[in-house]
Amino acid sequence: MSDLFDPARWRPAPFLPAKEARDGALVFVVAVLCFLACLSAVGVIAANRAAHAWTGQLTGEATVIVRPRGGETPDAAAARAAEALAETPGVSEARALEPAKAYDLIRPWLGDVSDLEDLPVPRLVAVTLDARHPAGAQKLKSALSAQGVDATVDDHAIWIKDIRRAGRLVSGLGGGVFLLIAAAAAAVVTFATRAGLAARRDVVEVLHLAGAEDIFIARLFQARFARLAGLAGAIGAVSAAFLGAALRLAGGGEGLTPALPLAWSDLLAVVPCPLIAAIVAAVAAQVTAVTLIREMQ
Amino acid sequence: MRYGRGPDVLSDLNFSLAPGSFHFVTGPSGAGKSSLLKLIYLAAKPSKGLVHLFGKDTAHAPASARPALRRRIGVVFQDLVLLEHLSAFDNTAVPLRIAGRKPADYRTDVAELLTWVGLGSRMHAMPATLAGGERQRLAIARAVVNRPDILLADEPTGNVDHEMAVRIFRLFVELNRLGTTVLIATHDQDLIARSGRPALHLEKGRISVKSHANPSGP
Questions:
Q1: What is the domain extent for residue B125?
Q2: Contact with chain B for residue A109, Cβ under 8 A
Q3: Domains with residue ranges and CATH for chain A
Q4: Sequence-ordered strand ranges (E) for chain A
Q5: What is the pTM of this model?
Q6: Which helix (H) or strand (E) element contains residue A243?
Q7: Residue B196: phi, psi to the nearest 5?
Q8: ipTM for the assembly
Q9: Looking at the partner chain, which of B45, B70, B83 has a beta carbon nearest the beta carbon of A202?
Q10: Which tens digits make up the pLDDT trace of B63-107?
Q11: Based on the structure, what is the number of domains in chain B?
Q12: pLDDT digit string (tens) for A224-246?
């Protein structure tokens, strides 16, 4: 057997065994945590986009309810209001809605009334505001007053406030869940590092007493756990990306649901996961290892 | 010296070892032989007093200075502490790798040393496949490969037969001839008697001198 070993061809073996029995369980747990963290990150991004989209739609539009005065017909009043608003700075477009649309809006409350046209139904003007410098409700009211139009301007302020609050709430909750899961992953890695050091106390002891610096020993464990966590992070990220893609495909153009639109670009949020997992593991492992080695002295 | 809040394991020790000397430490079980070696190889700190090594007070040396001091000390542990996942060659090379030397610089030295301790045909073997005496010699090879200034061995012949014990002792004598200070903790009174080397006798944590020991106060 001695003939098989040639010192000239010898290469140093790693101080830590390439594989440990507990590695599989650790990778599984960290991968699950990374999977959940990635899903929560994707969810937060989608929810943020949904909230912004809703807010953008509402802030980009206003509705004006026009009431005819004197002998003026409702259609004429609406046309005059639309004309006045179209010339107002901060308005991209103002369009009087057809009477049929106004009837459609009130029909659910009144039922199938044959002479609906005889009712004094107010006309609506849909206003599209300039995206960069939108006109405020007061400005629209002033423009209408200047033309002697009796109207009420609804700039959706109540809804915008609620939607913004809901968006902030969803983002906050999602971020909180994400941080909680990231902290749990760090705690698992820290625990695993302690267990790993305890299981490899012989290596730590031999290297320590052979004159290895604390940081040298810590880096062995740091590199090991960073590699394992990076692998677990990649597994979790790829799994989350697959699930996200499946939901996107199953949900059609709007993804899972119109309330939580999932874009393909959202799946890019999982890309940093392996790196973040590796960094968290490396920091946790180094701090734990140095602390434990110093406790041995 | 004491562990935690326990009783004194060692007390009122006052001795010095001349560079290049060869001493035994003997005494009954629990006398403090291993603790004394731990104080010297910086695995423990005295609760009171000073330990001077290589002209430095190691008891109060900063943590940053201790690794460099440890590299000058070779230790044969009582339980050997071999790394079971590394081959005999890799185990022997550990101190050299820690010292930052390149494999190309020490490959031949390690191979020669292993041959010298009788493991030339077992360089590639994993420790679990080695016999007791082979493991002992491997631990000794690892302890001396970096040519330490002082070699400490804790019961190095405790688990081997008489013939192997004599062979291991000869290795230590050879190292000592090359200039290494040797301190061996052992129960083997026969070995001590036949060696003609001085012995420090520890009993109940206190030291006395037998045979040719030449202790001198600091």
A1: 22-49+58-210
A2: no
A3: 19-53+164-296 (no CATH), 56-160 (3.30.70.100)
A4: 61-67, 91-96, 123-129, 150-154
A5: 0.69
A6: helix A214-250
A7: 75, 15
A8: 0.84
A9: B83
A10: 888 899 999 999 998 888 899 999 999 999 999 999 999 998 999
A11: 1
A12: 888 998 999 999 999 999 998 88
- Please work out, in degrees rounded to the nearest 5, the angle formed at the alpha carbon of residue A24 by the alpha carbons of A236 and A215: 90
**Chain A: residue whose CA lies nearest to B68:** A211
Which tokens belong to A197? 């050091």
**Would B186 be classed as within a structural domain?**
yes
Q: Which region, left, alpha or beta, applies to residue A49 given φ > 0 means left and ψ of -120 to 50 means alpha?
A: alpha
Q: In the 8-state DSSP scheme, what is residue A132?
A: S
Q: What is the DSSP letter of A268?
A: G
The tokens for A119 are 């009712």
- Gap between the Cα atoms of A222 and A229, Å rounded: 10
For A225, the token pair is: 């756990």
| Chain A residues 66-105 within an 8 A CB cutoff of chain B | none
Which residue matches tokens 């292993």?
Answer: B114
The residues, any chain, with a CB within 8 Å of residue A283's CB and separated by 6 or more, are none
Of the candidates B97, B108, B124, which has its C-beta nearest A12's C-beta? B97
Q: In 3-state terms, what secondary structure has residue B53? A: strand
First to last CA, chain A: 41
Amino acid at B102: K
Mean pLDDT of A183-202: 78
- In the structure encoding, which two tokens stand for residue A296, read together? 């041995």
Best CA proximity match to B215, nearest among B199, B196, B194, B191: B199
From residue A46, give the alpha-carbon distance in Å to each of A144, A244, A256. Answer: 39, 11, 10
Q: CATH number, domain at B75? A: 3.40.50.300
Calpha distance B173→B182 (Å, rounded):
8
Backbone φ/ψ region at A108: left (φ over 0), alpha (ψ -120 to 50), beta: alpha
First to last CA, chain B: 18
Chain B CB contacts of A12 under 8 Å are: 90, 93, 97, 103
Residues of B with Cβ-Cβ distance to A13 under 8 angstroms: 85-87, 90
- By DSSP bridging, strand B181-185 and strand B22-26 are parallel
Residue linked to tokens 């360089």: B123
**Residue A74 near residue A272 (C-beta atoms within 8 A):** no
CB B135 within 8 A of CB B82: yes
